[in-house]
Write a structure and sequence with these properties.
This protein is an alpha/beta fold. It folds into three domains: 6-176, Alpha-Beta Complex (inorganic pyrophosphatase (n-terminal core)), CATH 3.90.1640.30; 180-325, no CATH class; 331-444, Roll (Diaminopimelate Epimerase, Chain A, domain 1), CATH 3.10.310. It is 44% helix and 19% strand. A six-stranded mixed beta sheet has the order 9-10-11-12-14-13. A hairpin with a 2-residue loop joins strand 7 (262-270) and strand 8 (273-276). Helix 12 runs antiparallel to helix 13 (293-300), helix 12 crosses helix 14 and helix 13 (293-300) packs across helix 14 (304-327). The radius of gyration is 22 Å and the shape is globular.
């Protein structure tokens, strides 16, 4: 019996061989998404291309739109990472000579002849990050690229796929010499507990997140005493302390189940010491969402200057995130049966609205199957992020696609987490159509 993942591995082998032939004596344009998965994908790819002395240029983008695609040179080889699976129509119209795509997002358009694509959605629909696919691809280009396996782990965690460990992902973890430790899944697990809890956004802990006094109360209830004025970290807690702290968190947020709160913590070696992969992943994400994708790349490539700058950006980003979560209470909202539309306008940064909505979807504030949709302005555009509360319910990508098909725009993402971009002049029309469709969906449900 064929092992799960074999067809995907064969396809990666085939496309990588074709790619090597295609790029001989040519310039490659690499275009990657700006989130953690996209940045770690780019970091793996550019280092693999450098090893080959391959000529290339790199572009990091927030989203892929028709205007950007139309401006790409027609005669170059274009390689998209962690995006483009929903842009086949634009790619076809742009008449690009040769396009490669390594991505894991849903596909709902016909694939043009000039595109070679690696996407598990076309095969066994395995849960693997784009950075995982890029790593396996680059390992085919040169076995020595195994050293970048830990970057694929960062992307996997950035896309919340650490609980989807199967055959392919397991191999990547082994290649990356990743250490696993059982513990409470709040990052960073390697830093003092009080700071970790204060800035905990995933999960969001009511009365604790962003509240120093609430943090002290929770730690005291758990029977954890500071040593020489310093609290230990999550990975250093005893079994009893872990159990007590878990109980305290669940009492404050009953929606959190113990099996989701306690699990495997992944530790990777970066800058010569073990780091919580979730914290590094969060730093990459923070840099990109604050407009500093270059710093995020430098962090992945273990630049000490990049690390220092990334830490400073991350601290600022966390403060803004806490502020954004508090701001939600004051914002205009449209609420109905099993849905909530939060129109942040300029009150929350467009690059942060997805994170804010994602955190809220994991809080105890909304019932399972509620669709949460956030809107934030970006110049003359509006960024829309949609999340589904819980692990069942409506396909948010389909909901957004239906509305976008009527008014025009770009959609990407998955069944339970998706996003789109619309022009600002379409705001009212978008909200009206969205509200109508969400209310109709409830009637059908």
């Amino acid at each position: 019996m064929e092992r799960r993942g074999e067809r995907l591995k064969l396809e990666i082998k085939r496309v990588s061989k074709e790619f090597l032939e295609e790029i001989k004596n040519k310039h490659v344009i690499v275009v990657s998404h700006f989130d953690t998965d996209g940045i770690s994908s780019a970091a793996i790819m550019v280092q693999a291309l450098k090893k080959r002395d391959q000529q290339f240029s790199l572009k990091i983008v927030k989203s892929l739109n028709k205007e950007f695609i139309d401006e790409l040179p027609k005669d170059k080889t274009i390689l998209f990472l962690d995006l483009a699976s929903g842009s086949f129509n634009h790619l076809k119209e742009a008449k690009l000579k040769k396009v490669y795509i390594i991505d894991h997002h849903e596909i709902n358009q016909e694939i043009p002849d000039n595109i070679s694509i690696i996407n598990p959605q076309l095969l066994e629909k395995q849960k693997i990050s784009s950075s995982g696919l890029v790593y396996l691809f680059c390992k085919e280009l040169d076995e020595s690229n195994k050293e970048y396996a830990k970057l694929a782990v960062l992307g996997m965690i950035g896309d919340n796929l650490e609980k989807e460990i199967d055959n392919l992902n397991n191999g990547i973890l082994e290649d990356g010499e990743v250490k696993r430790k059982r513990g409470i899944l709040i990052y960073p697990s390697t830093r003092p507990l009080n700071r970790t809890l204060e800035f905990s956004s995933s999960p969001f802990i009511p009365g604790v997140t962003g509240n120093t006094e609430g943090v002290r109360d929770l730690i005291r209830e758990a029977g954890i005493i500071p040593e020489k004025g310093k609290y230990k970290s999550i990975i250093d807690l005893t079994e009893e302390e872990t159990k007590n702290l878990t109980t305290g968190i669940i009492l404050r947020n009953p929606e959190i189940k113990e099996k989701k709160l306690v699990g495997d913590i992944f530790l990777i070696k970066l800058f010569g010491k073990l780091e919580d992969a979730r914290e590094i992943s969060a730093k990459i994400n923070a840099c990109s969402r604050m407009g500093e994708s270059t710093i995020a790349l430098k962090l992945c490539m273990e630049s000490l200057a990049g690390k220092k700058r990334a830490e400073s950006i991350h601290a600022k980003y966390r403060q803004m995130l806490i502020s954004g979560l508090k701001k939600v209470d004051e914002l205009e909202k449209i609420q109905g049966e099993k849905f909530m539309i939060i129109n942040a306008r300029q009150e929350i940064k467009d690059t942060m609205i997805g994170t804010v909505v994602s955190i809220l979807s994991h809080s105890s504030l909304y019932k399972e199957e509620t669709v949460l949709i956030g809107l934030a302005e970006d110049k003359d555009r509006i960024k829309v992020s949609a999340r589904n509360v819980g692990s069942k319910g409506r396909n948010v990508r389909e909901i957004l696609s239906k509305v976008i098909n009527s008014i025009g725009g770009e959609v990407g993402g998955h069944e339970f987490a998706a996003g789109c971009t619309i022009s600002q002049e379409k705001e009212k029309e978008f909200i009206d159509l969205l509200k109508k469709d969400l209310e109709l969906q409830v009637v059908k449900f």
